[in-house]
Amino acid sequence: MKVLFILFMGFMILSCSTLEKEDENKLVGEGVDDISSQDIDSDNRGSDSGSIAGLSTVYFEYDSSALSEEAREILMENLDWIQSHAEVTSLELEGHCDMMGSEAYNIGLGRRRAESVKSFLIEKGIDDSRLSIIIYGEERPLSETDHSKNRRVNFVPIY
Length: 159
Prior knowledge:
two-stranded antiparallel sheet, 4-stranded mixed β-sheet, CATH 3.30.1330.60, 3 helices
């Protein structure tokens, strides 16, 4: 399994090394032509930064992907924000976990958390084509000591 991972990472590094920066915002090179014409602007601060008024991170209990009543209230506020920002073409839902459990388990749990949020938003009328999921598992903790801050789904608007 480690050998496959090493081979995969080597391939990814080799693939990325063929890219060159033409200017600050555009990559050119092999494998980039198919997306270079797309104008995608991500607010990579996301709701974790707290700087997007009306769009909040949703937190989860330990080892759970169930939406609490508090999470549902936050999602209803986020729903208002999403509906009032038509300029946002899509939202990335980032699934995060704390450092408990194996890496593979946390990837699955992060996915379940993001899917839970996505299902709620779709059920409330958001077109699923506006929602995408990215799973980080335990890779991007907000806190090394307060694990509850890491059990979350973060929202990143794409304009």
